[in-house]
Amino acid sequence: FNDEKTYYQVNHHVFLAHAKAVLAFKEIMPEGKIGASFAYSPSYAIDSRPENGMAKLDHDNLKSFWWMDVYAYGRYPRTALRYLEKQGVAPTITEEDSKTLHAAAQKVDFMGVNYYQTATVEYNPLDGVTPFGEMNTTGKKGTGQVTGVPGVYKNPSNPYLETTDWDWVIDPSGLRFACKEITSRYDLPIIISENGLGAFDKKTADNKIHDDYRIAYLAAHLKELIKASDEGCEILGYCTWSFTDLLSWLNGYQKRYGFIYVDRDEEGGTLDRYKKDSYYWYKEVIETNGASLSVE
């Protein structure tokens, strides 16, 4: 799919659907709480060169803030919209559309965040990489391609951070970064609607799944979330992804996220379920309301 004009118009219609849902919900249940959920990857400039700082700003306005500004303010980032207008791909926005988006933004109660990784941003020359590079959907580390917008930005790897087998950056501090950014920019409470680690989990002969890597991942992220709360972010809730292993629209059954192992792969399986080590660990975290975590 490379029709950018259609992409942004469809995206605009999604925003309108969100806005109308918010307005309808508040009409039915004025005291109820409602908000959007967005896959947010806060970004770092790769270094302090001005062109890379500008690339980060443009990246954020065309990506993360393009969504969250509409949810929280009811309008698109002005410079990003101007860029799309110059490219001839900006969505058609009616006056009635703008009124609907703005009205809904006044009634949003929180920002939902699906957090998995941060992004690194560098200036991308006009003859540079495009948005259509291949994602790593095989789990073979290092096979994902750098993507970006020619003349604006690209997303190289971060040399300071490890990645999953699917080349997703592992950055617990990025969750804290995301919460502080949202708090400062939008002054909204936050629900972490997704956070988790996809991995090649293996079941032993005695039906055990020793996923200490998942425990380490979640513990590190929860500790950063506690720090964000201590620093003034209002965290309403935290939801892991996910309770059980499930089918991925990109990776099938090979990329597992759950606390419960499901005996199923692309070839079949019994669908029997087995509790992973992370299940027992997270059970204790819940029972102690996080007191079992050691936060430095």
Automatic annotation (TrEMBL):
Residues at the catalytic site: 194
GO cellular component terms given for this protein: cytosol
- Keyword Hydrolase set for record: yes
Looking at the UniProt entry, the stretches that span the membrane are none
> Origin organism of this chain?
Candidatus Enterococcus avicola
Q: Which InterPro entries match?
A: GH, Glyco_hydro_1, Glyco_hydro_1_AS
- Family (UniProt): Belongs to the glycosyl hydrolase 1 family.
What keywords appear on the UniProt entry? Glycosidase, Hydrolase
Q: Which GO terms describe its biological process?
A: carbohydrate catabolic process
Q: What is the protein name stated in its UniProt record?
A: Glycoside hydrolase family 1 protein
